[in-house]
């Protein structure tokens, strides 16, 4: 966020600082903020302040950046929902904690050092050239900096670099640790495997009734009839009340003439350039209106078209009302200057797309239905009050349906999923909400209202059939199926155990597979994190649990996979390898981030941090001017 406002460190340290800002979100939370009294400060970390002006500048930059990325202005609601103010504040307070810790150690930079940084800053020094004062001045103007403010930010950035270097600059993971990570990541294995399934099983003899009864007695809870409920519902729906045929033609025509929904609004291609100096903005507008090419004006202002183009937008899509009003008052390819939320703003319009409207005959039926539904919604609101009063008076669903001429339905003996005793799914309006209400109430309780879109449904539970264990005679078919499946699973487990024991005793896996009529498949080499296509993840993980020659089995649905590790290839380890260099860099950064995070967390606990919530609200409040 502040990369364009600060000169960051390069390489690893730059990444560390960026990561640190992210980590700061865990350190900081709005609940930890308390009010301060200095009206020029938005926050303070220890003895290091964050000025209101610094926050406001960073907040504006981030808001403008998101605006440019989206190609349109942000609404006040979007500014709040994106959490721009909070993320900017968190980053600034984290930076202030770094500076405060550095100053406590006596770390500072001289004016000569700052001058040298400026002379080598690529923002102001073209490649192979010298310091460009004009580029520097444009930068100050773009971000509304005075020179003193700019050098204050630069000094803090330099102090943060030095402090970070002093704390974690030489931190690196030990080589044995890197070697272990390399082995874990890049070691490859190959396995030979075969699958045991139902075709491998011997015939399972039919059980005796005694065996089935014994199995039933051990697993009674698996053979329960679900709780069932019968309930009545009455529905109040605007759709059912709507009467399009009674809506007059005059009413439809009036709605068509008044409603902009049946057309597309005028849209304009708008550019906005926020400037610091209103005179510069007015001069640019005069030049544009005098015929100077807009591209030439942008070059003179040091801007790119992509930085200022809002795209083809309707008036309502422009966040700043002053800019919207100006843009939709201009002729094509003309410009003006307004006092916008972010300062003096040059506004220019390119192409204009006129508004359009659908023919009346194409939309009249839609309008008629919409007007009828609006009237029905009003009727439904009034009826809802009457029905609610009737329910409070003890009226059951049947009486409510008769009194108010509303549709009713009785649902008989369904389970919690809405299935009847034959397992068929019953059609129930507002299905999930109605079933939840029916199964939450006591039998005979007052009807409970639930929402189903625009409709309200009152649900009254009539009877409850409690869940209970089925008698053996009723459950016998399910008991036989469950017993048979248990016998198959037991046989598969026993066969897999015997097969693994044979493999681990030295019998070739191909010979073991042949005993079960199975064929061995040989895998390609794979790593722990990348199993070959078709290999279950559990098999790949288990293959790394033993040495070469190790055998094991893994369940896979209704089958068992028996495998043996046939080859283990250790990865080469060269510290200078480019891939390992990247891994080491990531590990180094992770370790350094952890150290920085822990240090700043402890430092913040020691020195404290406060936020002036009143100033923060004033700076970010919706509807307040930002000029």
TrEMBL record:
InterPro entries: PPIase_dom_sf (IPR046357), PPIase_PpiC (IPR000297), PpiD_chaperone (IPR052029), Trigger_fact/SurA_dom_sf (IPR027304)
Predominant cellular place of this UniProt entry's protein: membrane
A Pfam match: Rotamase_2
Any GO MF annotation of the entry: peptidyl-prolyl cis-trans isomerase activity
Domain PpiC: 207-242, 247-365
Location of this chain's protein in the cell: Cell inner membrane
One Gene Ontology cellular component annotation held by this UniProt entry: plasma membrane
Keywords, alphabetical: Cell inner membrane, Cell membrane, Chaperone, Membrane, Transmembrane, Transmembrane helix
Topological category with respect to the lipid bilayer: Single-pass type II membrane protein
Residue ranges that the Swiss-Prot or TrEMBL entry lists as coiled coil: none
Keyword Cell inner membrane: yes
Family: Belongs to the PpiD chaperone family.
Protein name: Parvulin-like PPIase
Native organism: Acuticoccus sediminis
